[in-house]
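Researcher: Here's a chain I'd like modeled. Treat it as a single chain, no partners, no ligands.
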Amino acid sequence: MTKNFQEFPVYQKSLDLVEKVFIFLKHQDFEKEFEFNNQIKRAVFSISNNTAEGSEYNNNKQFIKYLKIAKGSCAEVRSMVFVAKRLNLGNIEILEELILLSKEISSNISNFIKYLSENLEKKTN
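Model: Modeled as a single isolated chain. Structure tokens:
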């Protein structure tokens, strides 16, 4: 990889998601939901952190491995948001934004994995 991880659009969007999750958790419904707060924060941090960590290996195969973990963390964030929605916790508008943004990031990660996989195949042929 020649780019720094901060330059990847998917990394930048993952930081947007972190910011939105923190805004979402400021709602009074979450004041005593320590386990929920901790879990969704760990999941959302995992998206950006795994994207960053994987890029530092300068190896597409390793990067793909970390991007798959990040993609799984996107699903975990979405699952936590669905739980909040079902329990009527938090601001519904922000909740919907979280769902859309996490789906967008997940799709972007899938496309990035596909791109890296294709380049990996070209190098081995």
